[in-house]
Every structure is written in C-alpha cells, then in structure tokens.
Amino acid sequence: MRSLVLLCLAVALRAQERAQGPSDLEAVVKTEMGTFRFEFAADKAPKHVEQFVKRARAGYYDGSAFHRVVANGIVQGGDPLLKNPKTPKALWGTGGLNLMPGEYSDMKHERGVVSTVRIPDKPDSDGSQFFVCVYPQPPLDGKFSAFGRVTEGMEVVEQISKVPAGANGFTDKPVRIVSVTIEKKKVQPFLTATPDEMKKVVALKTTLGTVRIQMEPDWAPNHVRNFLMLASTGWYNGTAFHRVVKGFVAQGGMGDTRPGGAIHPADKWVHSLKGEFRGDVKHTRGIVSMARTDDPDSATTSFFLMLGDAPHLDSRYSAFGRVIGGLEVLDAFEKEELDGESPKRRIEILEAVVE
Predict the structure, then answer these.
(1) Global pTM value
(2) HSE of 217 in the Cβ direction (CA atoms, 13 Å)?
(3) Domain 196-354 classified CATH 1.10.10.10?
C-alpha cells in the first residue's frame, strides 16, 4: 500500500512539472566554486530551452565541467566528454555538438546571458554545450542561440571566468559542475500582496537594540511592498546606519555598507520607486520614511528613522511605517559619537525579520 502511495505521489509530481511552463522554471547550476541560477527565454529559443530542461532533468550535465574561460568575458561548459576526468585536453569542447539547428533572435549577449555553443563557422550545429557572458559580447548577437539569463550568483560565474587558463582559454583544471537541476522560479516576495496582507510588523535587530516597525500600506503601498521584500529576503542583513543627525534622522539600508559591498540575490528586485507623498502623514519622531536623491522618484533601499519632528519633509518624502517598539533605540542613536554625520563606530542591521 505504501509503495502505491509513493508511486501515485511521484506521478503527481511529474504531472505538476509538466504543467509548469519554462517561464515558471529556473536552472540551478551547482559547481565546485558555488551556485548560480538562470531563467529561461523560451520566447527567444523554445527548442533550446526544451532540450536544456530535458537534459538537466535526466542528469546529463551532472559531473561535467566548465572547461573554457575568458577572464571577465565568458565561461563555457556542458561537454559530456568532461564527465570522464581522463578525457584528453585535445578533445575538450568537442562533445555534445551538432545536435540541433540554431534559434537566432534579437536577444543581446549582455552580461549574464546564457547561450549555446556551436561548431565554429558552422551555423545550425548547436548542441548541449552552453556559455555564460560575464561581459557583453555584441559580436555574438544574432549568431548564437541565446536562451537564458542569470538571476542569481553572477559573482560565481565571474570567479569561474578567472581560473587559470592557457592561451586557448582551456582551464588548467576543469571547474566541475556538480549538478544542474530545474526548480520553480523564485518569485519576488509580496509582489502581489494586498494592502491588508502587507500590514506587517518588521523587527530590525541592530547593534543598539531592536526596533519594531509597523508597516502602513495605506500611506505608501509600493514602498511598503519594497521594504517587506528587502526585509524578508535578508537584503538588509549586514547593512549599516551610515548617517545620523541628532534630533533629526538615523539613515541606513544601503547595499554598499555591507562588508566588502557584497551583492545579494534579491538585488535583481531592487528598483527605483515612484514617490508616494501624503500631506496628512507627518514626519514626527518614530516615523519611518524612504531616503532619495533630488529626484522624487529615486528611492530604492535606503530609509531613515525620525529621531525628532521635521515638518519640512512632509509631502516631500514617502513615509511608510512607524516605530511601535524600541523607542529607546532612537534614544541610543542620540548618544552615539559622530564624525560629522557619520557614526564613529559601525551601527549594523544584524537582521530584519517580518513578524
């Protein structure tokens, strides 16, 4: 009976996979140097996407390698011959070719684009091998079958491109592809949430203590949606409060305040927000609002906590929340030693949690 249940479950899962179109899926490429993900451009190269998904699900790429690189240019892999570690270097890159015709489109070979390897000077000789552009490659546009774009882990691709290699681009040692799996595409958190669903509390755990912020989607729904996305994905974790003006604001939430300016998987969802200004929402102590440049529609991730009242900000900045717990942390900002408007010690957002 148990085996029958497991069989039915497996059949149901396979049916669910078939029901998901390429736009719902991503490839997860796990290498010995790290993992990257890419989404499919099935509208540009439907047959290539279909074949890649089919091969990946069959384990075709598992144990293969990236064997050719151009530093900060491209990485190339997917040759099934590389599964055998004893394959002579003279044969690297010769396997898995001449399997299908090309699908050339207007998709540009920009940074992060995934495309198909073919035999040099022989159109319509595409196969299983693929390459990822680390830097734009305009000469390849319209001549190679682009079928995907990296959504996460571009830094891993960059590092692979920099491994030692000879004059012909062949790596001194192949970078092993542990596995290529097909997973459901990651969806931006809170993208379709209603105002009622966004009435959350976010706990900012900082060096000075925890501040609990009540989201106010009725004030600025798109700013709340953005803040919840950044908090729920861990984007704010490890960033710092880089500006403190006593009696006025404590500002933080910039990606370049992370140690080493580290990138984050949710960077792909960061974008400029159109201002949501309301004259009836006052910038008083405890209000949380978004920082921006002189452009009213330039807010992205940086926000500020009001340490005092500032009526000159009303109707000019997008307030989206209010502190409902941890007001003593606001007092602690007032006691910090400053160098101009910069704290003398690092005040970090240790973790942002959507309660």
Answers:
(1) 0.72
(2) 17
(3) no
